[in-house]
Specification:
elongated; single chain; 4 helices; Late promoter activating protein
Length: 135
């Protein structure tokens, strides 16, 4: 069974392109970039509509164009569902938030930095209290 193109690959291509494109144009672009994956206009249309509805994607629809033209400008916190695709190389993609696991890892790193900063502040405060002159 041929593997389908995923939304992370479409997002990567659209963000790199930064131009209004129709579903047919996006389909042709994806077919040229990923010839080994199954691509059709139905899949691409569903992916683009999910970007438009998502609060985490900045996807614009050209108001005066028919057929509809989409422009994906940025992704912020979007969680991609990559089902069984082990051939994806996230390092080559410009999209940061690739999976839920990556987001959780970033959160843990930020929490550990915050905890370290809090410990340093506590140590400084204790040092001031201990070294403060008595009146």
């Amino acid at each position: 069974m041929e593997q389908k193109v995923s939304s992370i690959e479409v997002a990567d291509l659209l963000i790199r392109r930064r131009d209004y494109m129709t579903v047919a144009e996006v389909t042709k672009l994806v077919e040229t970039e990923y010839p080994h994956l199954a691509v059709n206009t139905g899949i691409i249309s569903n992916i683009l509509r999910s970007f438009v509805r998502s609060p985490f994607a900045q996807c614009r629809v050209h108001p005066d164009a028919y057929p509809r033209q989409y422009r994906l400008e940025a992704m912020n916190g979007y969680i991609f569902k990559v089902r069984g695709r082990k051939d994806l190389n996230y390092d080559t993609l410009c999209v940061e938030s690739a999976t839920k696991r990556v987001l959780q890892k970033k959160e843990l790193e930020q929490l550990s930095v915050c905890a370290l900063a809090r410990e340093l502040m506590d140590m400084c405060r204790r040092g001031r209290i201990e070294n403060a002159p008595l009146m």
